[in-house]
Amino acid sequence: MAGTLVAMSTAAGPPAIAVTGLHKHYGDKHAVDGLDLQVDRGEIVAVLGPNGAGKTTTVEILEGYRHRDGGQVQVLGVDPQAGDRAWRSRIGIVLQSSEDLGSATVTELVRHFAAYYPHHRDVEGLIAAVGLSEKARTRARHLSGGQRRRLDVALGIVGKPELLFLDEPTTGFDPQARHDFWDLVESLRDEGTTILLTTHYLEEAERLADRVVVVTDGTVVAQGSPHDLGGRTSHRALVRWNEDDVVRERATDSPTRVVAELAARFAAAGQDEVPGLQVLRPSLEDVYLQLIGAEQTTGTTTIEEVRR
Ligand code: ATP
Fold first, then answer.
1. Contact 76, 64 (CB under 8 A)
2. CA neighbours closer than 13 Å in the CB half-sphere of residue 104
3. Residues 180 and 238 in one domain
4. In total, how many domains does the chain have?
5. What is the pLDDT of residues 23-41, one digit of tens each?
6. E-state strands within 95-245
7. Is there a domain that residue 6 lies in?
8. Ligand 1 lined by 226 (C-beta under 6 Å)
9. Is the domain of 32 the same as that of 165?
C-alpha cells in the first residue's frame, strides 16, 4: 500500500462521536448496557472486547444501521437515526462481512462507489494505496480473502470520509498485508481522518490507536492510551535472570537498581553479562486479559495484580 493519499483538512466542531448511556437489547439480552463513549476529531480509538461484548451492535448504532433503545448518540453532530445522505457521505464504513460484489472488477467497483461522493479520491491512486494495482482488472469474486478485505477498505475510504469505521479490518490478512494496512491507516490519520476501529488484535490497537476502550457486557470497563492502560507503564517491573541453572525473578519498583546490583555481582565473579537478563512489565495483552477476566469472574481481581 505504497501510494500517497490526497490530503484533506480536518473540520473543526463538536466531537466526532458522543455517546452517553447507550442501551440496546435483543429480547432479554442487554447487548449494550449504559455505554458512554467520546471520540474527538482526528483521534483513532480502538474498541476492544471479547466476543459478544456489544462492539458491533454499538458500531452499527453509530453508523445508523441499527436503532437504539436508550441513550444519546451524536455522530458528526447528527443523531444517526436521523442521518441523511449528506451525513452518510461524510462517513466511511468497512464492515466485518462484506456484501457480495458480483462480477465487477476492482477498478469498476471503486469507480462505481466513487461516483456516490462529491469529493472522492483518485481511483487509480487509491487502488495503488491499498496494494491492488496488479489486481485492478480482476473480478472481485476472484480475489483472495485478504485482497477482498483490501478492496473493502478502498470502498470504505473512497469518499474521503471525515469519520471512518473499521470493524475488524485486518481479519484474514497475512502479516505483510497487515503491516501495509497499518501504514495506510497512519496516512489517513495524517490527513486528519477520525477512526473508530474494532479489533481482536492487541498489537493492532497498540500500533494504531491513540486511545483504547475496553468493552465487556455492553459497557466500558476501562480506557486509556494503549501504552498506559491500567497504569501498565508505572506498574512494578519483574527482573528475571539465570543463576546456578535456575531462573530467578524479582518484582521491583526500581528495576534499574536491581539490574545494576546484578551486573556488579556478576562482574565481581568475572562475568560481563548477566545470563538471561530480562526486565518485564505487563503487555497490553496482559492488562486487557486481566480487565476482561476481572469482569467475567469474581470481580475481585485488580489490575495491580497483573504479572507476567
Ligand atoms: P464479536 O467480537 O464476536 O464481533 P461483539 O462485541 O461485536 O462480538 P455483538 O455482535 O454486538 O458483539 O453482540 C452482542 C450481544 O448481542 C451478543 O450476545 C449477541 O449474541 C447479541 N446479538 C447481536 N446481534 C443480535 C441480533 N440481531 N439478535 C439477537 N441477539 C443479537
1. no
2. 14
3. no
4. 2
5. 999 999 999 999 999 999 9
6. 163-167, 194-198, 211-216, 219-224, 237-243
7. no
8. no
9. yes
- CB 31 less than 6 A from any atom of ligand 1: yes
266 and 243 in contact (C-beta within 8 Å)? Answer: no
> Hey, what's the cell of 113?
462507489
Query: ∠230-232-237 over CA atoms, to 5°?
Result: 145
Give the residue with greater pLDDT, 266 vs 300. 266
pLDDT over 50 (residue 71): yes
Looking at 203, 226, 249, the residue that finishes a domain is: 226
Mean pLDDT on 254-268: 95
Residue 212 counted as domain residue: yes
Which pLDDT score is estimated for 150? Answer: 87
Mark whether 198 and 238 lie in a shared domain: no
Question: Does the beta carbon of 211 lie inside 6 Å of ligand 1?
Answer: no
Task: Tally Cβ neighbours within 10 Å of residue 58.
Answer: 28
pLDDT value of residue 139: 94
Q: How far apart are CA 248 and CA 250, in angstroms?
A: 7
Residue 4 lies inside a defined structural domain of this protein = no
Residue 208 alpha carbon to ligand 1 centre in Å: 25
Q: Please tell me whether residues 191 and 236 are part of one structural domain.
A: no
Q: How far is CA 298 from CA 54, 79, 291, 307, in A?
A: 21, 37, 12, 18
Which residue in 111, 110, 107 sits closest to 137, CA to CA? 107
Tell me if 282 CB under 6 Å of ligand 1.
Answer: no
C-alpha grid cell, residue 49 = 472486547
Residues of the domain holding 86: 17-226
**Mutational test site, ligand 1, from 26, 166, 167, max ligand atoms within 8 Å of CB:** 26
